[in-house]
Amino acid sequence: MTDKRRISFSPPDITQAEIDEVVDSLKSGWITTGPKTKRFERELEAFTTSDRVATFSSATAALECALRALGVGPGDEVITSAYTYTASCSVICHVGATPVLCDTARGSYEMDYDALPSLVTERTRAVIPVDVAGRMVDYDRLYAALDRARDLWRPASDLQSAFDRVVVLADAAHSLGAVRCGMPSGTAADFTAFSFHAVKNLTTAEGGALAWRAGAFDSDALYDQLMLMSLHGQTKDALSKTRAGAWEYDIAFPGWKCNMTDVQAALGLAQLHRYPELLARRRVLVERYEHALESLGIELDVLRHYGEGFASSGHLMLVRLLDKSRAFRDGLIERMAEDGIATNVHYKPLPLLSAYRDLGFCIEDFPNALAQFENEITLPLHTLLSDDDVDRVAASLGRAYAALEAKGAS
Ligand SMILES: *Cc1c(COP(=O)(O)O)cnc(C)c1O
Predict the structure, then answer these.
(1) pLDDT the model gives residue 1
(2) Whether the Cβ atoms of residue 369 and residue 305 lie closer than 8 Å to each other
(3) Which residues lie across from 56 on neighbouring strands?
(4) What angle do CA 215, 221, 223 make, to 5 degrees?
(5) Which of the residues 36, 200, 257, 324 is marked catalytic?
(6) Can you tell me the distance from the alpha carbon of 300 to that of 303, in angstroms, rounded to the nearest whole number?
(7) Topology (CATH) of 16-267
(8) Residue 135 contacts by C-beta under 8 Å, 6 or more apart in sequence?
(9) Cα-to-centroid distance, 142 and ligand 1 (Å)
(10) 291 vs 109, 146, 288, 294, 302, CA distance in Å?
(11) For the stretch 231-251, what's the b/e string if a residue is b when 16 or more beta carbons lie within 10 angstroms of its beta carbon?
């Protein structure tokens, strides 16, 4: 008789520490952007060792404001991966620029760095790589690929002029806390966007941040500009306006509304204080999965999270069922669901989605991303899992796999 207790995919890990910090905000008389938001930004700077961090209501807002601060708009092109969540690409559309999608390399979740230079034109302003599953992409190969296309670089704004090649804006929604070649996520790309959505490693319910490294531009001025963008272009935030007699303000430009609140930042601060511990627990779980899956003796490609010179944030457990079809993968998901185990697929390549098909993208042009997707299954990985849960998920996968094979599926 198998245990049918449900194993959910990615529930938030909330302790009394988070509850106390949020209650403290609620009782303080200040619930929107204020002291806790600023403290969260400073602590994220220290944690990532980046030059500055600006918080937003989501990673999507962080990416979009970064593109706007860079002056990216109509007539410009921005390259991102075909193998990602819609947000990496929708932000390019939001600012009126043209998205250019790069296929993955064969057997990889990362863009094909060899193909990348041929996608760069004189209109290319930025590339948005995606640290899928929390594993940072190969930034060395990415920069080398962009260096090969340096002749085409035509900076078209002050901030773009601070760079001597296409700007790298990482979608690091998954990779807070990851390290590659001694560089923490937040310092490898020119700009790095993190997500604190409810299913992410560190959550503020909804929220995001943009981190950047120091460059040939004024970091303070950029920070101020991003804060203006996130709050109507208003020259004083609500907190400074409430000081007695300080009502006067200006609107510098018709801005957006995507600021982080102190209630969210309170949740984030408590999560960040626990985060080293949460990352360590994720590592234990990933390594347990690796052993349990290996001992099933079936043909799996399990994404490596830890290795020579890199440690991921252990965000998603990506597994590919080698030489199996999409139908086999879907059957496996159904059978594991019958065991009470929630799994997922990361990602359906963008050209398979109506929005991007309607923009003219055709999946036939992205064969590697398609192959990567068709037999991929994402297993639950979160800090509420017990060691036994991991063994149960692996055993369920093994049973489902054998049952499908016995039925003649492939
Ligand atoms: C979650 C996610 C986003 C969006 O984050 P939000 O904070 O919800 O805007 C972007 N990219 C990837 C890869 C994600 O997984």
Answers:
(1) 46
(2) no
(3) 208
(4) 85
(5) 200
(6) 10
(7) Aspartate Aminotransferase; domain 2 (3.40.640)
(8) 109, 175, 178, 303, 304, 305, 310, 312
(9) 21
(10) 22, 38, 5, 5, 11
(11) bbbbeebeeeeeeeeeeeeee
**CA 328 to CA 179: how far, in whole Å?**
35
Phi, psi angles (nearest 5°) of residue 359: -80, -5
- Count, residues in the chain: 410
Q: Detail the DSSP E strand segments found in 116-166.
A: 124-128
Nearest-angstrom CA–CA distance, 346 and 354: 17
Six-digit token pair at 323? 């030489």
Confirm or reject: Cβ of 172 under 6 Å from ligand 1.
no
Q: Is 200 a catalytic residue?
A: yes
State both tokens at 265.
């930042």
What order of strands is seen across the sheet that includes strand 300-302? 300-302, 317-321, 376-379
37 lines ligand 1 (CB under 6 A): no
Residue 130, classed as helix, strand or coil, is strand
Mutate to test the pocket of ligand 1, among 195, 345, 347 (most ligand atoms within 8 A of CB): 195
Does the CB atom of residue 10 touch ligand 1 within 6 A? no
Q: How many CB atoms lie within 10 A of CB 299?
A: 11
Domain boundaries, the chain: 16-267, 276-406
**What contacts 23, CB < 8 A, 6 or more positions away?**
none
pLDDT in tens, 42-82: 999 999 999 999 999 999 999 999 999 999 999 999 999 99
Whole-angstrom Cα distance, residue 410 to residue 403?
Answer: 11
User: Which residues share a beta bridge with 310?
Assistant: 180, 307
More confident residue, 241 or 373: 373
Its CATH architecture, for the domain 276-406, is Alpha-Beta Complex (3.90)
The CB of 80 under 6 Å from ligand 1? The reply is: no
Give the atom of ligand 1 at the shortest distance from the alpha carbon of 196: 7
Whether pLDDT at 4 is above 80: no
Distance CA 67, CA 227 (A): 14
Give residue 185's identity as a one-letter amino acid code. S
Alpha-carbon span 279 to 260, nearest angstrom: 24
Cα(174) to ligand 1 centroid in Å equals 8
What is the torsional sign of CA 316, 320, 325, 329? Answer: negative
Give residue 130 CA to ligand 1 midpoint distance, Å.
Answer: 10
Average pLDDT for residues 86-108, to the nearest whole number? 98
